Queue: 2 jobs
Job 1
Amino acid sequence: MVYLHERTWWKEAIVYQIYPISFFDSNGDGIGDLKGIHAKLDYLKDLGVDVLWLSPIYRSPLADMGYDISDYRNIDPRYGTLEDWDTLLHGVHDRGMKLIMDLVVNHSSDEHQWFLQSRSSKEHPKRDWYIWRAPNFDSSGQKRPPNNWRSVFQGSAWDLDEETKEYYLHLYVSKQPDLNWENPDVREAVYDLMKFWLDRGCDGFRMDVINLISKTDGLPDAPISAPGEFYQPASMYFANGPRVHEFLKEMNEKVLSRYDIMTVGETPFTHDASALAAYVLPKNGELDMVFHFELMDVDSPMEGPQRVPLIKKDWTLEEFREIIVRWQLYKRDEGFWNAIFIENHDHARAVSRYGNDSPQWRALSAKMLAVLEITQGGTLYVYQGQELGMQNFPRSWSIEEYKDVASQNYWNRIMKKRQEESGNQNVDMSDVLDGFAHKARDHARVPVQWDASSNAGFTTGTPWMRVNEDYRTWNAASQLEDPSSVLAFYKRALKLRKSHPLFTYGEFSDLSNGHLQVFTYLRTLGGSHALVLLNFSEEKVHFDLKGVENLDTYQLLLENYESQEVKSTKLAADGRVFLRGFEAKVYISG
Ligand code: GLC
Ligand code: CA
């Protein structure tokens, strides 16, 4: 059989993302930990995943939940010790799985030794490890940041160091100063810490905002796209910058190519396919794949060049489908490889966004989305709780329950603006909370719902974040017992993906023909074909299959409804298909 893509383990892998603080708490302090992950390895093996990706567990002040690292070579005591990590790794490897770590090297924590030294004086050899600039002055002689860049989490992207009277750049919060990748010593230090983990047995990296490591020369002011505001979205000057590919080629040459590992880059702020492909195409020798955010952005409005993630925008199936189809077809002949995901720790729950989380449709639409995921070409990622159909927490939760710094900063900024505009302290924020209820990152960060005991069995103590009350009926223990559960469906679906290489490697062709509710496609590899039918609406719909040959050879492989009204495992000879609300079906031939 001829494969367009060379086969490798990481292409076929099903990756499961763990957000450790909310996964499972082994010692009752309310915080998930490494021993907790170890305790659930059999659950994960049984689910059918191959690779575990851990969101950061390094020592960190947790200003951005560990995406602010103060020691790259140690585990935060809240999560455990290096020995616990070794034990976990053994447990993972013993079960035939692999473990990848989150590499967060666009920035460190301001509590990292490197930054403490860098800020200590202008003369310190590590001064140039971060991005320091002299202040600007306004007409009244007041100090101003060196440019108008807005930090991704609001406010200026610069902070003044009072001692040395210079500003440092932080694309995220002030406690996340950006490393200066222009400095070769910084790059060597990063490569060293990567080797530290790889030599210890780690099987690869997910690379945090890796497309931001090179900034445009001269750090020019961003054009005004948010009129009336001082700080402007500036991703055109910090995403996919001039030297990013040079740096990644160097990293590949010096580190990645020397190990049998997998790498996936997180590449936000760009929808430009050819810019993203440059990181992935095998001939470039950089990364194995990247996470693009087009699908995640489909329900976010634009503000100048950037999306506003915390406001909900309506989306259509047509837009959604067009994005998936385009990426499924993109540069296959050159070996471009996709990363397939619909949830992670930075986004609200998929069933609440792209499915329908009302009681009638929740399980069905969660399963329909599972089918969408397992039938796409690329490496598949599943986020913790996705396999249980975990949904957003309720709109009735108040702002106090939102622990994410991105939510809090956004809330405070809007509130302040409204207070200033109205001269009144009491301003209506209900529309902002509406947006949060749909879109906030917090929804993905509540504890995993393990069983019906108190706190969803996540902890015997007080959980760091409130548990969603629906755990009493929606939890892993009860779903393990129930063959019709979302979890049981995931297990079946993941197994099918693994046993049919066409889902991972096959050609993709869209057959949807502009249908308003249905997404239909054919996957083909050699002589085998899979036909996927997905109804994205609550309505009963008809679909006419056109252009599919030998309809009579197709057999039903997977469906999300338990019982067929008309029991049939075949397609109708005339190609007319009837789908119930959120129904998903996969047929296979050859
Ligand atoms: C990535 C992470 C996100 C974090 C940001 C800054 O987008 O996934 O959680 O806030 O980088 O490190
Ligand atoms: Ca704990």
Note: The first strand starts at residue 14 and ends at 18.
Job 2
Amino acid sequence: MTTVITYGTFDLFHIGHLNVLERLRAMGDRLIVAVSTDEFNSGKGKSSCFSFEERVRIVSALRCVDLVIPESNWEQKVHDVKAHEVDIFGMGDDWAGKFDFLKPHCRVVYLPRTPAVSSTSIKLDIFEAHSEKQAQVQREQGVRSLA
Ligand code: CTP
């Protein structure tokens, strides 16, 4: 039995998230996903659109995910790897090298990120589309008030 573990926020669940989770699950027999809690994220100055409970429900519903646990601090990884008898720790390659300290305990892999999508870029796209719409409404109101 090969156990794989990964960590992340998984806000606004998107195709890059699905790709990395499916690839990691294919490397073993069991995939554990540690989902970042809202408190952990706020300590990093990060906030998500969906709450921890919502993100856990979405990730738990995936066929490629066998177990979801909370990620509440930076230090828990060695403990998690030992407690769940993890063989492979995997993340997208935006984290390349960052978790090599786990190498004495398990295999550490960094998979290529899916290009051109992230929770941050989705938020920015929506914000820009909304700003553009508001600017258009203001231009139209301006034209009407001049008429
Ligand atoms: N990931 C990926 N490809 C993407 C986006 C994310 O492989 N295009 C991976 C990350 O490398 C990580 C996992 O998905 O292993 C969870 O990442 P997360 O930070 O939750 O997703 P992002 O979309 O990168 O979120 P943010 O923009 O808030 O950093």
Note: Residues 6, 8-10, 16-17, 20, 91-92, 94, 113-114, 117-120 surround cytidine-5'-triphosphate (CB under 6 Å).
